[in-house]
Amino acid sequence: MTKLMQLYQQYKSIIAYLFWGVVTTIINLASYQLLIMFTNVSISSATTIAWFISVLVAYLTNKVWVFGSEYTTVSDFLVECGRFFFYRALTLLIDLAFMNVGVHVLGFDSDLQQFILKVIDNVVVVIANYVFSKWLIFNRNKEIADK
């Protein structure tokens, strides 16, 4: 059992990131699907709204439970939050491009095809988000806090 606990401690942030990544992916997918099914918004608008909702959840969960950011001043919080949203905006562009190419260029026009495309899209986005968070957002916070 101690070997299992050692492995957990070693990979705790990755496990937490994957767990919360699944939660935010489900939020993104559900938001997107509900907007497509019950509103008259475009694919780009639905993608953007779903992105915004899921990024809010992602920021809070990443800050507290994944990377343990402990900024206490308002200015540090705003810098961190700004970096988080900036890098998430880059992955939003990936998300939008992925969906628009899939639907408008490759012709995935049925609801099921678009949903499968959105799932694949989210896998790519989650990987990119982890890289950005681990090495460009929350890692820099620890370096700044250590000074």
TrEMBL record:
Superkingdom of origin: Bacteria
Biological process, per Gene Ontology: polysaccharide biosynthetic process
Segments traversing the membrane: 14-35, 41-60, 85-106, 112-132
Xref: Pfam families: GtrA_DPMS_TM
InterPro entries in the record: GtrA_CellWall_Glycosyl, GtrA_DPMS_TM
Membrane topology: Multi-pass membrane protein
Cellular-component GO terms for this entry: plasma membrane
Subcellular localization, as worded in the UniProt entry: Membrane
Residues of the GtrA/DPMS transmembrane domain: 17-138
Keyword set, alphabetical order: Membrane, Transmembrane, Transmembrane helix
Signal peptide start-end: none
Predominant place of localization: membrane
PANTHER family: CELL WALL TEICHOIC ACID GLYCOSYLATION PROTEIN GTCA, PROPHAGE BACTOPRENOL-LINKED GLUCOSE TRANSLOCASE HOMOLOG
Family membership: Belongs to the GtrA family.
Name used for this protein in its record: Teichoic acid glycosylation protein
Species name: Limosilactobacillus equigenerosi DSM 18793 = JCM 14505
